[in-house]
Amino acid sequence: MLTLLNRIFVSSFYTKNAGTFLVIILLAFGFLSAVEHKALITAALGSPLVLAIVFGLWGLYLLKTVSFIWQELTAPEHLFFQTFWLIPTPTRLLLWVAVQTAMLLPILAYAQWMIQIAYQYQRWDSLSAIVIINLLYIGIGSLAADYRLRHPNPNAWHLPHVSLKLPYEFFFPTYWLRQEPLSLVLTKVFSGLLLAGVCRLYPTDDYDQRLLLIGLLLAILGHAQVGGQVSAFEQKYLLSLPNLPMSRIQRFGRYALMYGFLWLPELVILLHNCPVGIPLDYIIWLWLTGLGALLLLHSLAYGHEINPERWLSGVFASFIGGLLAIMFGLPVGAWLVLVWTGALGYWSWSFALREMTP
């Protein structure tokens, strides 16, 4: 029976939220080293307020697991689980405890690390609180799952539901995270690790700022497919968008905000790993250059039927041409002007051409 429960609830939970977990891991462990995590944990162990915030975040994760179990229990394909309540209560609760423990495994793993540090510093009060909270969360999750099993009417009681009105600029990022998480994670992991690696490599090289430009070029080309994805998303879900009364500049500004949000993690990575001797304003110009390049790729791909082979050939040619220009010393200011002028110019021309096409 436990194998069936794990397959329906535990495996499905981790599979459906794989993209979210990978993004969280990237944000948590991509920007913070083990030493910084240990320092953060030490601060939490010594501050009841910080520790309470950690417990609150764990509680949000608990609500997500409970909500998932409730949703699966009321799904039509799982209605046969209504007979599960015929199992004796102690056995049934033990099964739910096993399921809930497996679903809370990320929290329990991090809690174990905190317990080890608390034991090392002899913070018995914080250690006890962590153990009690984790046992309490497992118990609450198990009882909540059993409650839904015994009260299958979904109208009886609902978990708090927060409804947020997303602006247009967040439509595609939200869709990308929920529907194509693997594509999102691979794109951002490649770009982030590449920029971080180039920043770490910088002190050992003599190419001065050109090495950062090469890393930026590769990170941008790693996003070469995003423009086509945005175009396909809008053609499928936002069919009325071309008919809205917006000028080409207003539309371009909305895309600039959207890509700015998608490109924001790279700014954090660049600032966090900024090499010694590189001024802050250069990092900002570098990031803005990347944003303009993304908008140029978007303008080239948007609304067109693209041959994948020709597109890849164009990407490769762009890399060779960009690499040669960087090696011959084209500065970041020139790149900034070129990509933004190209993005605005091509977008205006292609938008005017689409308006003329019946």
TrEMBL record:
Protein name: ABC transporter permease
Transmembrane segments: 12-32, 39-63, 93-115, 127-145, 181-199, 211-232, 252-271, 283-302, 314-347
Lineage: Bacteria, Pseudomonadati, Bacteroidota, Cytophagia, Cytophagales
Keywords linked to the UniProt accession: Membrane, Transmembrane, Transmembrane helix
Organism: Spirosoma pollinicola
